[in-house]
Design brief:
alpha+beta; three-stranded antiparallel beta sheet; 3 helices
Protein backbone atom coordinates (compact mmCIF):
# COMPACT_ATOMS: atom_id res chain seq x y z
CA UNK A 1 0.00 0.00 0.00
CA UNK A 2 1.05 3.56 -0.58
CA UNK A 3 2.76 5.22 2.38
CA UNK A 4 2.25 8.97 2.81
CA UNK A 5 4.81 10.98 4.82
CA UNK A 6 4.78 14.43 6.43
CA UNK A 7 1.21 14.83 7.66
CA UNK A 8 0.13 18.47 7.19
CA UNK A 9 -2.61 20.51 8.78
CA UNK A 10 -5.29 19.06 6.55
CA UNK A 11 -4.90 15.48 7.66
CA UNK A 12 -8.30 14.37 6.42
CA UNK A 13 -7.50 15.24 2.80
CA UNK A 14 -4.30 13.23 3.04
CA UNK A 15 -6.15 10.31 4.61
CA UNK A 16 -8.72 10.43 1.82
CA UNK A 17 -5.95 10.42 -0.81
CA UNK A 18 -4.37 7.42 0.92
CA UNK A 19 -7.76 5.69 0.82
CA UNK A 20 -8.19 6.38 -2.92
CA UNK A 21 -4.62 5.31 -3.69
CA UNK A 22 -5.14 2.03 -1.82
CA UNK A 23 -8.81 1.46 -2.63
CA UNK A 24 -8.40 -1.69 -4.72
CA UNK A 25 -6.25 -3.36 -2.06
CA UNK A 26 -8.61 -2.36 0.73
CA UNK A 27 -11.58 -3.79 -1.16
CA UNK A 28 -9.69 -6.98 -2.01
CA UNK A 29 -8.81 -7.50 1.67
CA UNK A 30 -12.07 -6.36 3.30
CA UNK A 31 -14.88 -6.51 0.75
CA UNK A 32 -18.01 -4.36 0.87
CA UNK A 33 -17.88 -2.34 4.08
CA UNK A 34 -17.26 1.02 5.71
CA UNK A 35 -13.75 1.62 7.01
CA UNK A 36 -12.42 4.03 9.59
CA UNK A 37 -8.98 5.35 8.63
CA UNK A 38 -6.36 7.03 10.82
CA UNK A 39 -2.59 7.39 10.49
CA UNK A 40 -2.72 5.83 7.00
CA UNK A 41 -4.22 2.58 8.18
CA UNK A 42 -7.59 0.95 8.75
CA UNK A 43 -8.60 1.16 12.40
CA UNK A 44 -12.04 -0.39 12.01
CA UNK A 45 -14.37 -2.14 9.59
CA UNK A 46 -18.16 -1.80 9.85
CA UNK A 47 -21.44 -2.69 8.16
CA UNK A 48 -22.84 0.87 8.11
CA UNK A 49 -21.66 4.47 8.20
CA UNK A 50 -23.60 5.08 11.41
CA UNK A 51 -21.97 2.10 13.14
CA UNK A 52 -18.51 3.24 11.98
CA UNK A 53 -18.94 6.75 13.36
CA UNK A 54 -20.62 5.66 16.59
CA UNK A 55 -17.95 3.10 17.47
CA UNK A 56 -14.90 5.01 16.25
CA UNK A 57 -15.75 8.21 18.11
CA UNK A 58 -15.64 6.24 21.38
CA UNK A 59 -11.87 5.82 21.03
CA UNK A 60 -10.74 8.50 18.57
CA UNK A 61 -10.88 12.30 18.54
CA UNK A 62 -13.23 13.72 15.89
CA UNK A 63 -11.28 15.20 13.00
CA UNK A 64 -8.38 12.77 13.38
CA UNK A 65 -9.93 10.01 11.27
CA UNK A 66 -12.25 9.53 8.31
CA UNK A 67 -14.93 6.97 7.50
CA UNK A 68 -15.29 5.81 3.90
CA UNK A 69 -17.52 3.41 2.01
CA UNK A 70 -15.63 0.63 0.23
CA UNK A 71 -17.62 -1.46 -2.26
CA UNK A 72 -15.19 -1.88 -5.14
CA UNK A 73 -16.68 0.90 -7.27
CA UNK A 74 -15.50 4.44 -7.86
CA UNK A 75 -18.98 5.67 -6.95
CA UNK A 76 -18.31 4.73 -3.32
CA UNK A 77 -15.89 7.64 -2.93
CA UNK A 78 -17.04 10.14 -5.52
CA UNK A 79 -20.01 12.46 -5.46
CA UNK A 80 -22.19 13.84 -8.18
CA UNK A 81 -24.10 17.06 -8.20
CA UNK A 82 -26.96 17.38 -10.63
CA UNK A 83 -28.49 20.68 -11.58
CA UNK A 84 -31.56 21.13 -13.74
CA UNK A 85 -32.47 24.48 -15.19
CA UNK A 86 -34.87 25.76 -17.81
Amino acid sequence: MTNVQNVGTDNRKLLFQWFVDNYDNIFAERGDCFVAIKDYGIIGQYKSFAEAVKKTRKTETPGTYIVQKCDGTQEAYTGRITSISK
